[in-house]
Amino acid sequence: MGTYLFMVLPASILFFIFHTTPALMGIFYSFTDWNGLRPSFEIVGLKNYLNVFKDKDVLDAYWFTFKFAIVTTIIVNIVSLSIALALNSRIKFKNFFKGLYFMPYILSMLIVAYIFNYFFANFWIDIMSYLGIEKWMVNPLGNSKGAWLAIVFVTVWQSAAFNTVLYLAGLQTIPEDLYEASSLDGANKWQEFWGITFPLIAPFFTINMVLSLKGFLQVFDQILALTGGGPFGVTRSIALLIYKNGFSGNEFAFQSANAVVYFVIIVAISLIQLRYLQKREMNL
After folding, report:
1. At a CB cut-off of 8 Å and minimum separation 6, what does 42 contact?
2. Which of 86, 133, 203, 273 has its CA 20 to 30 A from that of 48?
3. Would you say the pTM of this structure is higher than 0.85?
4. Per-residue pLDDT at 260
5. What is the pLDDT at residue 78?
6. pLDDT exceeds 80 at position 101
7. What distance in Å separates the CA atoms of residue 197 and residue 180, rounded to the nearest whole number?
């Protein structure tokens, strides 16, 4: 027992110093008026928390973040499940395609976003011109409608790989005998999917949905690299707002309160989502 404790202790100490301590300090400062630079501050109680729900920039960031997270979660899971079903079938070069689809996930999201930023700025217009689509012959990152759709596209392209691996793991746990029996009963592929495949991979669906939504609610890297929150702040996420206004906008205490509120919201959503989906698993 002493040996195991000795092995765990250094990591626990480092975790406490570099993760837990800053988090506790942020919670403390959320009850003050400190701007991150002044040597002194005063306790203001719940003032920052009350003002979070009155600030238009915060509310706009919440709206964008939730819209982005919900849409992206749905698309990523549809795309990744479709890819997993295709890769799990009897196709040639299966291992090659598995590696190919997983490659985007190896790259950092920040690097992927910078690559696509360059693509949209330099090649997108030429491609649309070649295809003769004049309406789309503009950089999508420069307008409010195109910018958030471009962020969704880049995020789906990079994130679907991880979900695909989890779905593949689930599909490989299904006995082949079940499909053979259903085939003898005359079931088609659609009936097999809803009657056999989806119920048996329901736990994998649950974990993918929870992890996806939680991750996309914390969206930061791709927005920083693609739009920086623009144009005109329409693609500014909560994480980006907290980072920019907290560290360079003299709103350290206020954004600390915003971060605490958002943390509570994410935990609550994850718990509700997990409970609902687990109940759904039992009913399948």
Report:
1. 32, 33
2. 273
3. yes
4. 92
5. 93
6. no
7. 13
| Secondary structure (DSSP) of the chain | -HHHHHHHHHHHHHHIIIIIHHHHHHHHHTTB---SS-S---B-TTHHHHHHTT-HHHHHHHHHHHHHHHHHHHHHHHHHHHHHHHHHSS-TTHHHHHHHHHHHHHS-HHHHHHHHHHHHHHTHHHHHHHHT-GGG-S-GGGSHHHHHHHHHHHHHHHHHHHHHHHHHHHHTTS-HHHHHHHHHTT--HHHHIIIIIHHHTHHHHHHHHHHHHHHHHT--HHHHHHTTT-STTTT--HHHHHHHHHHHSS-HHHHHHHHHHHHHHHHHHHHHHHHHHHHHHHH-
Closest CA to 211 of 257, 148, 163, 281: 163
Looking at per-residue pLDDT, the higher value among 39 and 282 belongs to 39
Burial zone of 35 (CB within 10 Å; 0-12 exposed, 13-18 middle, 19+ buried):
middle
Residue 133 has pLDDT above 80, yes or no: no
Phi, psi of 122 (to 5 degrees): -120, -30
**Displacement of CA 22 from its chain's centroid (Å):** 23
Q: Is 46 exposed, middle or buried (0-12, 13-18, 19+ CB in 10 A)?
A: exposed
C-alpha to C-alpha distances, 6 to 9, 15, 20, 21, nearest whole angstrom? 5, 15, 20, 21
As a whole number of angstroms, the distance between CA 53 and CA 62 comes to 10
Q: What is the predicted pLDDT for the residue at 80?
A: 92
Residue (of 214, 215, 221, 219) closest to 266 by Cα position: 214
